[in-house]
From TrEMBL:
Positions of the ABC transporter domain: 17-247
Organism: Streptomyces gamaensis
Pfam families in UniProt: ABC_tran
SUPFAM superfamilies: P-loop containing nucleoside triphosphate hydrolases
Keyword Nucleotide-binding found: yes
InterPro entries according to UniProt: AAA+_ATPase (IPR003593), ABC_transporter-like_ATP-bd (IPR003439), ABC_transporter-like_CS (IPR017871), ABC_transporter_ATP-bind (IPR050166), P-loop_NTPase (IPR027417)
PROSITE patterns: ABC_TRANSPORTER_1 (PS00211), ABC_TRANSPORTER_2 (PS50893)
Keywords for the protein's UniProt record, in alphabetical order: ATP-binding, Nucleotide-binding, Transport
One Gene Ontology molecular-function label: ATP binding
Annotated SMART domains: AAA (SM00382)
Protein name in UniProt: ABC transporter ATP-binding protein
UniProt KW ATP-binding keyword: yes
């Protein structure tokens, strides 16, 4: 029996997204049945920004896909607040941006709305407003091949926010960017979230990114992934990258790093 994860804080607001007892098995290319997730449970409150960190291959991306309905769990249940079914409840942002090269920048930003049945005039108007907010208005009629990597990721964020979905699921959305662009995008994402207060679950390998962006950080063990620790991020909002230079940030970084190491097989064997 696994011990329950340690928690600094439980959200007190009503859960928008929750999962209970999620297991996930898959078959390797050699035909071996492997377990990716082991009894994962979590609850995300309305407007909360939750970050998930863990070693490579621990099942973070699998968990995100299950939360968003792209994959089915082998056991357990995912629940969304019932009233969210009236609109597409979830929008994804992936590391590779997922922009469609045959559509203009405007059409990419409007894609989620168009798939929901919103007319062209209205969806293009919403898209144009979001392109302005991410600094891409002058590229609205261009195609994505004219955009840099950072600009394509801004487009992916604009599309997710423009969709109207109350829940955003982000899988290493900034992982492919160089350090300078990554920091700029982190601050951009902070501003957008602080203005919109979407409910966000973000998977990242970066402890610093998780502590900069999140309200809580969930730590996962090596495969099969379990949530072993939960840390509340105490830094007030609005938040900027300058918080990373504080002693409190450094101390919390050490605590999260220690939690990650504690559940690696090579560490446990020592």
């Amino acid at each position: 029996m696994n011990a329950p994860p340690s928690e600094d804080h439980h959200p007190v607001l009503p859960a928008v997204l929750s999962a209970e007892g999620i297991d996930h098995f898959f078959v390797s290319p050699e035909g071996t049945v492997l377990q990716a997730l082991d009894q994962v449970s979590l609850s995300v409150a309305d407007g909360e920004f939750v970050c998930v960190v863990g070693p490579s291959g621990c099942g973070k991306s699998t968990l995100l896909r299950i939360l968003g309905g792209l994959d089915a769990p082998s056991a357990g249940e995912v629940r969304l607040r019932p009233e969210l079914s009236v609109v597409p409840p979830v929008a994804f942002v992936f590391q590779d941006c997922g922009v469609l090269p045959w559509l203009t920048v405007r059409a990419n930003a409007a894609f989620g709305l168009r798939m929901s049945g919103v007319g062209r005039k209205l969806s293009d108007g919403v898209a144009d407003r979001w392109l302005a907010r991410v600094g891409l208005s002058e590229f609205a009629d261009s195609y994505p091949d004219r955009l840099s990597g950072g600009m394509r990721q801004r487009l992916a964020l604009a599309r997710a926010f423009a969709s109207g979905s109350p829940v955003l699921l982000m899988d290493e959305p900034l992982g492919a960017l160089d350090p300078q662009n990554r920091l700029l995008m982190q601050e951009h994402l902070l501003r957008l979230w602080e203005q919109e207060h979407k409910t966000v679950v973000l998977v990242t390998h970066s402890i610093d990114e998780a502590l900069l962006l999140g309200d809580r950080v969930l730590v996962m063990s090596d495969r099969p992934g379990r949530i072993t620790d939960t840390f509340t991020v105490p830094f007030p909002r609005p938040r900027t990258a300058a918080v990373q230079d504080t002693t409190a940030f450094a101390r919390l970084r050490v605590r999260v790093r220690q939690a990650l190491r504690a559940h690696r097989p090579e560490e446990a064997a020592r």
